[in-house]
Specification:
The mean pLDDT is 95. By secondary structure, the chain is an alpha/beta fold. The protein has 2 domains: 221 residues, Thiolase/Chalcone synthase (Peroxisomal Thiolase, Chain A, domain 1, 3-Layer(aba) Sandwich); 151 residues, 3-Layer(aba) Sandwich (Peroxisomal Thiolase, Chain A, domain 1), CATH 3.40.47. The chain contains 11 helices and 16 strands. Helix content is 30%, strand content 21%.
């Protein structure tokens, strides 16, 4: 089986407009979460993580006319542009596929009846069409929208396309923005924290929402690899516990099956994992369930963190930007502190990372869970790592 190489990436969040800028801020323990009272987002003060609008307009104006694109489309185009600059890939070639992920898409258009765009722009497929048109893509894109596992699932889907040999390169881009509609649903569940979220902590009270976009470029073409020790995708899997429309299985069985099947596909065991990039939304049920799944997989000794307290829960971008952070953890041999954690707050033991640490990291497991009982996991490692 051909290797699937990760050769370029980009992250746009409140912490910056590149993977480098974002990861440097993660290493410093800097959070982009702030309280907002913006009436376009919330009627009550809300902790959230928002991309700098002025910087977005400035950066985008350098490559095209901003008025032609929505806020999310601009972020996606900027992210993909930066990632492509790191490669020799021509996105207009028929051997290159675009895979997108988003939960809400251009949701802000619903709230603004006077927007200048065609009414179809609210559809998810319209976002991918606009972005692909910008890059002159010759191939019909794929769009993944499966709650909060959308980003990880998009990466798994991309890997399958590369494995079956239909495409040589896949550009995976996922993102979501914050509008008034987005927090309102979580507020109805009483699932949003009044302070920056605290994943796996005893005093956690809910999630913090964020907006962002992530892009990761994957290829089966070894000639495009520029690094001596490239990070490769080794395996991934999805599952559904079918427990409830919004609540995960209390036993963690669904996420456990995704982890088990991921390791099986990767040809690895639970002794081959250096680090777990957890989902860690800081809701009572998610973190408890996740701890049970990790324990069931006999991984409670493995260092684990959640990055949600840095840039919030970015929905369709979350799985992608957190995978990118894991890839950079391998490249820089370091573990990022799980911000917000101080007192253990789940029933099962976890090796939560409490401070930034330089240590050898050859691989990591990414986990994700979402509404509808959906679960996903993915495994990445250096090319020749055990």
């Amino acid at each position: 089986m051909n290797n699937i190489y990760t050769i370029a990436d980009n992250i746009i969040t409140s912490l910056g407009f590149s993977s480098r800028e974002n990861f440097d801020n993660l290493k410093l323990g800097k959070s982009g979460i702030k309280k907002t009272s913006d009436p376009k987002i919330t009627q009550i003060p809300l902790q959230t993580s928002i991309v700098d609008s002025k910087r977005l307009e400035t950066e985008f104006s350098r490559i095209d006319k901003p008025e032609k694109y929505t806020r999310l489309e601009k972020m996606m185009i900027l992210s993909i542009t930066d990632a492509l600059k790191q490669t020799d890939i021509d996105p207009s070639k028929e051997n290159t596929l675009f895979v997108f992920s988003s939960v809400k898409g251009n949701i802000d258009l619903i709230e603004n009846e006077n927007h200048p765009f065609d009414k179809d722009r609210i559809n998810l497929w319209a976002i991918s069409d606009q972005v692909c048109k910008f890059f002159n893509s010759a191939v019909k894109p794929v769009f993944v929208s499966n709650a909060c596992i959308s980003g990880v699932t998009a990466i798994i889907v991309a890997a399958e396309y590369l494995r079956n040999g239909k495409y040589k390169n896949v550009i995976v881009c996922g993102g979501d923005i914050i509008s008034e509609f987005t927090p309102s649903g979580f507020q109805s569940f009483k699932a949003i924290s009044d302070e920056p979220c605290k994943p796996f902590d005893a005093n956690r009270t809910g999630i913090t929402l964020g907006e962002g976009v992530g892009t990761i470029i994957m290829t089966s073409n070894k000639d495009l690899v520029k690094e001596e020790k490239p990070v490769i995708f080794r395996g991934g899997a999805n599952s559904n516990d079918a427990n409830h429309i919004s609540g995960p299985s209390r036993t963690g069985d669904g996420l456990y099956y995704a982890i088990r099947n991921t390791l099986k596909e990767a040809g690895k065991t639970n002794t081959n994992i250096d680090y777990i990039s957890g989902h860690g939304t800081a809701t009572p049920y998610n973190d408890e369930m996740e701890s049970k799944a990790i324990k069931w997989a006999e991984l409670e000794h493995v260092p684990v963190n959640s990055l949600k307290a840095y840039w919030g829960h970015t929905l369709g971008a979350a799985g992608i930007i957190e995978c990118i952070a894991g890839i950079h953890s391998i490249k820089e041999n370091c573990l990022i502190q799980s911000l917000g954690y101080s007192e253990h707050g789940v029933s099962e033991p976890l090796n939560v990372i409490t401070e930034f640490k330089q240590t050898e990291i050859n691989n990591f497991l990414k986990t994700a869970s979402g509404f509808g009982g959906s679960n996903a996991a993915a495994y990445f490692s250096e090319l020749n790592a055990d």
